[in-house]
Amino acid sequence: xxxxxxxxxxxxxxxxxxxxxxxxxxxxxxxxxxxxxxxxxxxxxxxxxxxxxxxxxxxxxxxxxxxxxxxxxxxxxxxxxxxxxxxxxxxxxxxxxxxxxxxxxxxxxxxxxxxxxxxxxxxxxxxxxxxxxxxxxxxxxxxxxxxxxxxxxxxxxxxxxxxxxxxxxxxxxxxxxxxxxxxxxxxxxxxxxxxxxxxxxxxxxxxxxxxxxxxxxxxxxxxxxxxxxxxxxxxxxxxxxxxxxxxxxxxxxxxxxxxxxxxxxxxxxxxxxxxxxxxxxxxxxxxxxxxxxxxxxxxxxxxxxxxxxxxxxxxxxxxxxxxxxxxxxxxxxxxxxxxxxxxxxxxxxxxxxxxxxxxxxxxxxxxxxxxxxxx
Amino acid sequence: xxxxxxxxxxxxxxxxxxxxxxxxxxxxxxxxxxxxxxxxxxxxxxxxxxxxxxxxxxxxxxxxxxxxxxxxxxxxxxxxxxxxxxxxxxxxxxxxxxxxxxxxxxxxxxxxxxxxxxxxxxxxxxxxxxxxxxxxxxxxxxxxxxxxxxxxxxxxxxxxxxxxxxxxxxxxxxxxxxxxxxxxxxxxxxxxxxxxxxxxxxxxxx
Lengths: 375, 206
Prior knowledge:
Chain A has a two-stranded antiparallel sheet. Chain A has 2 domains: about 1-290, Ammonium transporter fold (Orthogonal Bundle); about 295-375. Helix content of chain A is about 70%, strand content about 0%. Chain A is elongated, with a radius of gyration of 38 Å. Chain A has 15 helices and 2 strands. By secondary structure, chain A is an all-alpha fold. Chain B is an all-alpha fold. In chain B, a hairpin with a 2-residue loop joins strand 1 (about 155) and strand 2 (about 160). In chain B, helix 2 (about 35-55) packs antiparallel against helix 3. The longest helix of chain B is centred in the last third of the chain and has 32 residues, at about 175-205.
């Protein structure tokens, strides 16, 4: 049991990495070798940063620390194809050093490191991150994208209109982050990870519920079904819901609490999408709502603690009642015993009293006989 | 009166106002994103703090604590007015970008808190020398932060363009300043621990 628990983190990492690798494969199919090299660079720098940070903090580097690899892959998949290599690399360094290890490493994760890295890149190289090459623009290792366009998210956020066929949406045939547009693959990944319990079910359901609720209450387009479709497929919503919002390292443990984290993230993202039109708000809000996740975690711990103290108090009460009952029984038994004993003593005394009188009579007779003999 | 044994140069490194005590960090984080702002802040902070503390030392110590603090704030506010006018003349662009953090310098922790805890427990001459080192400590940190942030975020040094290959504009934002200052504080404390452990081992050998 303990071994399973200890191994769980690395199994989660393995499952997530496999799904991310599938997305990476799809990205290679659409954009060419550049995305593969970006992914390798991200993974390599994440690994090096994690190793150095762990060694500097005098800890042992274990297989559980390899979660940094999946963080690196997530960052590379959120980037546009053909981006300058140093941008994802800097994002990975920032994510691992500042977003993760400064706060105490993998056991004290506050933010999703990948989201922090992406936010850093977004604030530092906003223009480069929000321009994407068209699908099937094969980009070589040393090349950069020639024709850039705004993302489908930008078009949807600013105009409220988007004309993409369901086939294109499912296969990811539209402008966006290399791994965030493959909707079919993302759906499959979500199902696998949910069944394998590698991501938080509560947060995932909460985020989906929040987006559905807002899409129904205040749709972006005139058609609710269109709004639902585009809300989930653009702005990295589905990708962020799976790999960032539902990250079990940051969400509360119980589904009940993590549901609210996911729900509020989705509600706020949607509200801001309607009012500001900023792209990829789910990632930004997931980081900004970290205090909420922490507060829910604390609440969860507090309730757990209170429950445990309640049970302790109840057991102590029960013990006291039992001991009182036992004490009462013992006292009754003692009274009975004492009565029996006193009766027995009386009887013994009576018997011994008769015997004593008989013996003393005999002794008196013997004494008189001795005196007369002497006389 | 009991005199406390503080070293006057503590404020420069060992008890640096920013790196060690984490005081007066908001102007550095928000406004210290280039050297020009840093210099303007150094100018304003140094004059306001030096004269405020020096004048506040004449406030009778028998007054209640709250009254003394109010008196210090009034003195520093009075000094702030001419300094603000002068800064607007010397650094016209910076005073705008510094904004609300400029008047906040008049009630910085060195004036409001450290006066009672440290400075007014010293003799006058020692107090002035210690105060100068504390101010220099702050000046050094804001210069360093301003230099790093301007270089990395804008690729310039005091508005002169440097041939920087990559620019990280996030460092110029408040969150970048916060993280950079946090990293500097961590490095400083690590170095201080190493230095103090080295001193301890030296003394043990002796």
